[in-house]
Amino acid sequence: ATTAYERAFDAAVAADDRIEPRDWMPDAYRATLVRQIAQHAHSEIIGMQPEANWITRAPSLRRKAILMAKVQDEAGHGLYLYSAAETLGTGRDELLDKLHSGRQKYSSIFNYPTLTWADVGAIGWLVDGAAITNQVPLCRCSYGPYARAMVRICKEESFHQRQGYELLLALSNGTPEQHAMAQDAVDRWWWPSLMMFGPPDDASQHSAQSMAWKIKRHSNDELRRRFVDICVPQAESLGLALPDPDLRWNEERGHHDFGAIDWTEFWEVLKGNGPCNEQRITQRRRAHDEGAWVREAAAAHAAKHNGGTQG
Ligand code: 3HC
Questions:
Q1: What is the ipTM of this complex?
Q2: Residues 6+ apart with CB under 8 A from 163
Q3: Residues with Cβ < 8 Å from 180, sequence gap 6 or more?
Q4: Is 23 in contact with 12 (CB distance < 8 Å)?
Q5: Is the CB of 161 within 6 Å of ligand 1?
Q6: CA of 134 to the centre of ligand 1 (A)
Q7: 117-171 per-position pLDDT tens digit
Q8: Which of 95, 161, 214, 264 could form a disulfide with 128 if both were Cys (CB 3.0 to 4.6 A apart)?
């Protein structure tokens, strides 16, 4: 028999109402939101590393200013998302500790290296493009604080995606060497970007339940397909080829068919065996340790100004 609380929760989800922090919610609903929001936040702050690698070597002041603004935005996205996770009763320290000890994940995409300046364009166009395709439906997620964080993040992601596209267009229309550099970056970032949407639906452990709770509005494969359909005409406008010989329009399906994804690579990266996993976590732990004095100073300042209570 269900309790009145469970019936109220189910009715709210069915009516597309928002569940707010003070509302009763099933423990499993709370737990899956903490899992997803925390890992989304971890992705944002780890995602600062691949691009930060090029801030000091940007080819112009304009590109450097754009890239600094984007990396700073990613830190802010992490802040919104850790704050959304905290409304569910889990503090940032605990979540960061789980990230640092490998008990929570971050997006597989950030375990790949940024080898040339063109990678900054490929990340903006493809990685932030995939993030937008994934995040727009999350603006309608049943949990209020997560959905509202997504609205603000999606606005900033559009700038991220546009600047990446424009950067690649400049290279593609540049010298033959610049065009080749842009094509090489797209060749390396295309398949890992498709993996960002998660495993195939029949291998997705959480999708059914997350869709029943209206956390996930579309399946992994559905959003992946939507992303491919968006990218094909954009690649044509860029004058760059997507590295998939099986990619073609399927009139009766109304979508593009595309080649097989290397799921062995995906699961290996998730297990920690990607090109940059060790480097990313080591850098993250170092940044956390080196930032301890900032956290202590902020806490001391808060304590002094809150009449001695620990802020
Ligand atoms: N990288 C790492 N782990 C992944 C993954 C990926 N690309 N795709 C799936 N996984 C993990 C899941 O977290 C889950 O493991 P867990 O139980 O330890 O959490 C497992 O693989 C099975 O996958 P499921 O499909 O069952 O899991 P979900 O229902 O959670 O779906 C998801 C995965 C689609 C990524 C979903 O969690 C989601 O939509 N998350 C929010 C979006 C997000 O995290 N985006 C990160 C992209 S990068 C970014 O946003 C930065 C941008 O600014 C550039």
A1: 0.98
A2: 66, 70, 124
A3: none
A4: yes
A5: no
A6: 10
A7: 999 999 999 999 999 999 999 999 999 999 999 999 999 999 999 999 999 999 9
A8: 161
